[in-house]
């Protein structure tokens, strides 16, 4: 799928082969204001503001910002509210005090099924979250995994010893059906290693589904090439013949699109390659203020995804991550949008669940408040009190106005 190479890169002599190579995109990611301003050809006044923001964010040894050249090429720089820009380019609003934030990943010591190894997290009896990477193709400002991906304060780079321990732990839990590989982006892992991991997991007889959550289709869609798709499909079909397994393993790719503008020709090509090879594709969207908190934008996104046979999985309430208050809606705003979407008959029986993450696990949000899901006006602002279907207790989630 040939795509246009932006002028900046053409002038630098970047070839079409380089531009379409996911490794080139990764190796040439942009993390300085100077380079970003040049690529985007920003006017001086805007460049000055951006440089000041980058300077405030700077911390030794850390990339405060990371963007692939491809991602930058999707932004309309003339539009200050471009949805891809708002999700990836830091803003002055990040420095405003937050009403409520978590300053670490919402993890409980008991979540870790592999003890001190801490690579597999289990909040539900039948699903294990396995982390194979600690970074991503590009960084999203609202990321709930910011501490791992962007701030690198939580260790997540798995090695052979940790992977073996993780496999042992999964093997010892016959109730586990699904392995969710997520946050950082597993698609950042080279083919050989990623396929080695998958090849080991499919051998576990009680695993029925492996889900890989990725934002590569937005950030670096060239990652999904013919070799990748064919090998993934082969691992899936070979699982039908594994000795000791009664049935095969379904391999699914969890994509993350928040706005229809993100569905580039390259992203659609990647989805179509996966679907053609029999790989399931599902989408998760995060509800973000000023980006997609609008029924028509979400309806357009969902319509486009369904046209491509992508299952709509979750609409996620944005988590209270430090520096993201300006991007968060209230729970009530999300409920209103869900009710509006439900009135559109074309989505009957197809809409995603609206959910919120919580340190106890994901909680489905009903369309209206009820006895088990109430809104309270607490001293420090609104709070949601809900009966958790995981702990069976009333749990609290601070909300925004
Ligand atoms: S791709 Fe996912 S894990 Fe990575 S920064 Fe974006 S939201 Fe976070």
Radius of gyration: 21 Å
Portion of residues within helices: 25-40%
Query: Termini separation (Å)?
Result: 45 Å
Strand portion: 15-25%
CATH class of the largest domain: Alpha Beta
Q: How large is the count of helical segments?
A: 15
| Main β-sheet description | 9 strands, mixed
> What count of structural domains?
2
Strand order, biggest sheet?
1-2-3-4-5-6-7-8-9
Q: What structural class results from the helix and strand content?
A: alpha/beta
Mean residue pLDDT: 92
| Number of beta strands | 12
Unreliable stretches covering 5 or more consecutive residues? none
Q: Would you tell me which CATH topology of the largest domain applies?
A: TIM Barrel
Give the SSE string.
Answer: HHHHHHHEEHHEHEHHEHEHEHEEEEE
Q: What sort of overall outline do the alpha carbons produce when their principal axes are compared?
A: globular
CATH structural architecture of the largest domain: Alpha-Beta Barrel
Molecules bound to protein: iron/sulfur cluster
CATH level 4 superfamily of the largest domain:
Aldolase class I
Give me the secondary-structure topology.
Elements (H helix, E strand, L loop, with lengths): L6 H5 L4 H4 L2 H6 L5 H8 L3 H14 L11 H5 L9 H6 L31 E5 L2 E4 L15 H4 L10 H12 L6 E4 L9 H11 L7 E5 L2 H4 L6 H13 L11 E6 L9 H12 L3 E8 L7 H13 L3 E7 L13 H13 L9 E4 L6 E2 L8 E6 L2 E7 L6 E5 L3
Parallel strand pairs: 2-3, 3-4, 4-5, 5-6, 6-7, 7-8
Antiparallel strand pairs: 1-2, 8-9, 10-11, 11-12
Helix pairs in contact: 10-12
The chain binds iron/sulfur cluster (SF4).
Iron/sulfur cluster binds next to loops.
GO molecular function: 4 iron, 4 sulfur cluster binding; catalytic activity; metal ion binding
Pfam families: Radical_SAM (PF04055)
Protein name: Radical SAM core domain-containing protein
